[in-house]
Amino acid sequence: MSYFRNKSDILGESALCLKDKSFFPGVAHCSYYRCYLLIQDIWYNVLGKTEGDISIAKNYQDSSHMVLIKEVENLIKNSGEPNAAFESKTFKRKFFDLKRLRTSADYKDEDFTYDMCCESISLSDDLVPLLKRIK
Q: Residue 51, class by beta-carbon neighbours within 10 Å (0-12 exposed, 13-18 middle, 19+ buried)?
């Protein structure tokens, strides 16, 4: 198992622990990075890309996260799987919903509620099996 996958699993467990302690903003943070680490695993260990590849792609896009997210979205879309187009759209929608929640939890001067916490975990739980299937 790659370190990215191991860290992803740890963040999944961390999100549940933080939820139990009512530390709801931390749940969104852990849930997002749980998925993002799997995206990094795909970038480095499945696609064989490097940090240099991210830097080159960033010249045309706005962030390293977006570079990796778009690459994984395209990988899912072009996988040849029967539901590839649907899964690609689902991945993008759910990941950006999770990113929105993480942004709210980390950067917004607003309450981060129990329901938002549960939504973060649910989105992460939906995304992880899809991301782990990519080899």
A: exposed
Distance CA 104, CA 83 (A): 31
Burial of 69 (0-12, 13-18, 19+ CB in 10 A): buried
The model's pTM is: 0.93
The domain segmentation of the chain, as residue ranges, is 3-133
Give residue-wise pLDDT tens across range 9-36. Answer: 999 999 999 999 999 999 999 999 999 9
CATH code of domain 3-133: 1.20.120
Distances (CA, A) of 100 to 27, 38, 45, 97, 107: 13, 18, 27, 5, 10
